[in-house]
């Protein structure tokens, strides 16, 4: 059984990737600092506690587990925190990734799947963005991800490293079997935040700005089910192993945009509850509308969304939030 190193494997997307890897006959080795991840989500393979900012601990993992490939999810990812403490984001996301890449090269591990973000596109002339759209990060989180993409591409050009970079749109939903799900502290993502407030006794929902140039004035995003997202990672990994890719970038979204108000209405409909909704001012660093063109992943990797409906995404999240939570 091939070992696949999963940095950030105790996090939301990383843990779903571990389950998908395990189901396809790989052994996912989680490397996670547990600063934002949860030990309880590591259910599908070995766990190594460590930090990418400590090069020795990452080198040790390569010598012990000899992974055939790396899926690199470990990163700080809160837009608002990145605006207030950009230096944290540059150190953690960029330096941590450089340490990982150097350890991979030393260990002759040449296959990398990298977790990037659609927020590197920022505000574009067109709402629908594809892989060739100009990048224009609006916050330090997005800027740090673009910097890592550039760093990786430079190293790929000069070495035997091969990479697939996935630019995620708004990843949501949870394991349909309910074993794992999304759990951030603090939570900042729209769908879990709305559902947690629906679950709370005296919760309320906040809309960050209703004066954007969109039909109902609230921001439009493309929500993709985490199961569909990690499925693309498996296809990407297999393409790397088949030798057909050297350095490719793919958007992963479902191609449909939903406004904040539409998402909130969906959450109220799926849960059959009512919660007060209040309008707040805009959140710094938010683009008004962004939707994915994901044709390239469909065409080249044979990827399809199994759960394109927002109701499906929300109901899997609700099923998780109703029943589940991790403890530190
Ligand atoms: N949002 C909101 N209220 C919340 C959380 C988020 O209005 O409590 C908005 C946010 O301003 C953005 C959209 O919902 O327009 C999606 O935000 P999220 O943080 O989920 O993802 P992002 O698009 O920032 O990656």
- Low-pLDDT residue intervals, each spanning 5 or more residues: none
Number of strands: 15
Bound molecules: uridine-5'-diphosphate
Helix content, binned percent: 25-40%
Mean pLDDT, rounded to whole units? 95
- Fraction of residues in β-strands: 15-25%
Tell me the span between the first and last alpha carbons: 30 Å
- The outline comes out as globular
Please supply descriptive tags for the structure shown above.
18% strand, seven-stranded parallel beta sheet, binds uridine-5'-diphosphate, globular, 328 residues, single chain, alpha/beta, two-stranded parallel sheet, 39% helix
What does this structure look like?
The strands form five sheets. A seven-stranded parallel β-sheet has the order 3-2-1-4-5-7-12, sandwiched between helices. Helix 2 runs parallel beside helix 4 (86-106), helix 4 packs parallel to helix 5 (140-158) and helix 6 (190-199) crosses helix 10 (310-323). It has helices at 12-23, 55-65, 79-84, 86-106, 140-158, 190-199, 226-242, 260-271, 295-301, 310-323; strands at 3-7, 27-32, 47-49, 69-72, 111-117, 128-129, 162-168, 170-172, 205-208, 220-221, 223-225, 247-252, 258-259, 277-280, 291-292. The chain has ten helices and 15 strands. Bound molecules: uridine-5'-diphosphate. Residues 79, 119, 170, 188-190, 193, 206-208, 219, 221, 260, 283, 286 line the site of uridine-5'-diphosphate. Uridine-5'-diphosphate binds at residues 79, 119, 170, 188-190, 193, 206-208, 219, 221, 260, 283, 286.
């Amino acid at each position: 059984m091939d070992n696949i190193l999963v940095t950030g494997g105790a996090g939301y997307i990383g843990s779903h990737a571990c389950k998908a890897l395990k189901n396809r006959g790989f052994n996912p080795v989680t490397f996670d600092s547990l600063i934002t991840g949860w030990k309880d989500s590591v259910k599908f393979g070995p766990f190594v506690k460590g930090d990418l900012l400590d090069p020795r601990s990452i080198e040790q993992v390569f010598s012990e587990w000899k992974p055939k490939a790396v899926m690199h999810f470990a990163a700080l990812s809160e837009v608002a925190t990145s605006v207030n403490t950009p230096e944290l984001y540059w150190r953690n996301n960029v330096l941590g990734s450089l340490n990982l890449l150097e350890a991979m090269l030393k260990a002759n591990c040449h296959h990398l799947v990298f977790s990037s973000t659609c927020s590197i596109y920022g505000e574009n002339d067109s709402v629908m963005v594809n892989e060739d759209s100009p990048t224009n990060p609006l916050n330090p989180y997005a800027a740090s991800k673009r910097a890592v993409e550039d760093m990786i591409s430079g190293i790929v050009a000069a070495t035997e490293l091969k990479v697939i970079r996935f630019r995620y749109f708004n990843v949501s939903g949870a394991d349909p079997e309910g074993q794992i799900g999304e759990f951030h502290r603090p939570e900042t993502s729209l769908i879990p935040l709305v559902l947690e407030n629906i679950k709370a006794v005296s919760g309320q929902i906040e809309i960050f700005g209703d004066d954007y140039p969109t039909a109902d004035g609230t921001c439009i995003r493309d929500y993709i089910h985490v199961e569909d997202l990690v499925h693309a990672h498996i296809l990407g990994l297999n393409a790397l192993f088949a030798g057909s890719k050297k350095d490719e970038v793919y958007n992963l979204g479902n191609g449909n945009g939903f406004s904040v108000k539409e998402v909130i209405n969906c959450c109220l409909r799926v849960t059959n509850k009512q919660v007060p909704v209040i309008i707040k001012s805009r959140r710094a660093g938010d683009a008004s509308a962004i939707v994915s063109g994901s044709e390239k992943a469909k065409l080249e990797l044979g990827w399809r969304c199994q759960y394109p409906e927002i109701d499906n995404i929300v109901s899997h999240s609700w099923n998780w939030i109703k029943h589940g939570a991790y403890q530190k």
